[in-house]
Structures are given as C-alpha cells and as structure tokens.
Amino acid sequence: MATNNPEGFKKASQTKDRIFTVATGLFNQKGFEKVTIREICESAGVAIGTFYLYFESKNAILYDVYRKADEVYETEQISKRSGLSSHEKILELIRIQFSIGIMLHVEPAAAKQLFVYQLQSDNQYFLSEDRAFHKQLFAVVEQGIAEKTIRDDMSAHDIGWRILRFSRGLLFDWCIHDCTYDLMNFGMKEMQIYLELFYR
Questions:
Q1: Banded model confidence at residue 129, pLDDT cuts 50, 70, 90
Q2: How many Cα atoms are found within 13 Å in the side-chain-facing hemisphere of 142?
C-alpha cells in the first residue's frame, strides 16, 4: 500500500506491523493452520478488506519476515562497521539471519511454514539482490577480497551466493529436523567450517 502523505504512510506502516505482530502471536499460540484471516483481523481490530491491502494471503504475513529482517540489516549496517574484519562481518550477518525468527518472535513451526510458502509462491523478494542483507554480504566479501583476506579467484558476487546457499541450507536442515537442535550454536559452527573455503 503506497501513499505520498507522511502521516498516512506512518499510519499504514503501523497498521501493517500490528497485523504482523498479532498474526505471528496467534500462529505461535494456536499453530499456523488453525488461525484464520478473520481471526487475525478481529484480534488486530481491522477489517478483512484492510488486511488485503497489506497482505495477499496468510502465508504472505510470514514472508514479511524477510522485509523486517532487512530493516534490521539497514539499522545495523554491518558492512560499514569499523573494528571488525571481513570474516567477522560475514559471521555477524549470518548470525542475524539465524536469529531473526527469535527477534521477531516467530516460532519454529511458523518458520517451517515459511519454507513451504517460498516453494509455492512466485514472490521473488527472497532472492532479490536489492535486499539489504544481500547487498551488505556482497560488499563485505568485496572488502575481504580487497584486503586479501578472502580468495580472489571468484567474484564477490559468486562467493556471496555460495555463502547464501549454504546458510539457507542450514536453515532448511533445521526445519526438516523439526527445529530440535540449537541452530545458533550448531549453525554458526558449520558456517565457520564452510567459510574457510573462501578465506586466505
């Protein structure tokens, strides 16, 4: 929903955030499949028509996790931090990726449903190279190549996508194991081992 009115934009953003917060709370409490759009709207105090101004479906609410994650990346600006090596910046970017569900209070069962939606939807935001997460990761890899701490026989773009595929693979593995292991602990250790392939 677009508006050129700053106050209108603020109100629209607040409404969308309220729907998201209420919906994820209901998903966590009752399970994704048992929650209806009508129930979300009643709990959020909005009309069903208003819901569809912001989300095309119940699944699309979960997809908004990626946009909210990018807001975190925009705020943190990991790629521009001084005092961190390129290696440390990459790990910090991945740490945020693994912890975003916790930050947004999205339970494991809802995270699994998000993967289902990704496979069924033609929404390409998840893969967009304009995402803050992707742009910062590519920038950090470029920094590492320039500093000669990351191999230079591949482009920053290619290395970045390899890192993304591996980190997403870890998230998928966590989901198919019913989210029963500590993703932050195990996942970050696995990432460190994998990243050695690109370090100098």
A1: very high
A2: 9
CA–CA distance, 24 with 110 (Å, rounded to integer): 8
DSSP string, 110-130: HHHHHHHHHHH----GGG-TT
Among 5-14, 29-38, 74-83, 184-193, the least confident range: 5-14
CA dist 170 and 193 (Å) reads 13
Query: Is the per-residue pLDDT at 145 higher than 70?
Result: yes
Largest Cα–Cα separation, the chain: 56
Q: What are phi and psi of 133, to 5 degrees?
A: -60, -50
In angstroms, the CA 102 to CA 16 distance is 20
Which domains, ranges and CATH numbers included, belong to the chain?
Answer: 1-55 (1.10.10.60), 63-195 (1.10.357)
Q: How confident is the model at residue 137 (pLDDT cuts 50, 70, 90)?
A: very high
At residue 199, the 3 state secondary structure works out as strand
d(CA 93, CA 192): 13
d(CA 163, CA 169): 10
Instruction: Provide the whole-model pTM.
Output: 0.83
